[in-house]
Amino acid sequence: MLGRKQSLKGEPILADYGPEESLNESADIEWINKLWVRRLMRLCALVSLTSVSLNTPKTFERYPPLQYITFVCDTIVTFLFTSEMIAKMHIRGVYKGEVPYLKDHWCQFDATMVIFLWMSISLQIFEILGIVPGFSYLSIMRAPRPLIMIRFLRVFLKFSMPKSRINQIFKRSSQQIYNVTLFFLFFMSLYGLLGVQFFGELKNHCVLNTTEME
Predict the structure, then answer these.
(1) Average pLDDT of 108-132?
(2) Number of Cα atoms under 13 Å in the Cβ half of residue 39
(3) Is residue 165 located within the same domain as residue 68?
């Protein structure tokens, strides 16, 4: 027991489980890790999530100006996230250094989200110019964008234990998470296929006899 306590004594206790969340504004750090910059990036994540939620055919049909509002918001957010990514690559190194950017899992996630944001903006430009029909099958490229909410939520992941211990727990539970995810996807696909086969497209609704049909 004494040896176990001594082994844990030298390891830092994490407050936030993220790539830059354990830093504070009073430390001698780069501007990209300052508190106000991190809060701005979280706000950008919320703006991006709201924008992709509004990006639907019915929404743009009822409120046409929203197409340009969401485009402007996505452009600003994408440029900010891209600037942050480039700054971190310059500070930490791309693939070499003490803490290289591409070897950090959270940074890999952030870079992936930036790529999807650029793809979404490019697609929206083509849709506005009429090169690509609106909401074609290419719109599936926007599907991963809601995952950017993870960037906002990860700040609330707080653990009072060493990071090495947390990594061990995640590695041990990865197989169980995989099995549960596979189980969930199987039943979602099964119920989805059964629902389509049984009910098809729901165009008819039950109404009262006194209902006025428009």
Answers:
(1) 92
(2) 5
(3) no
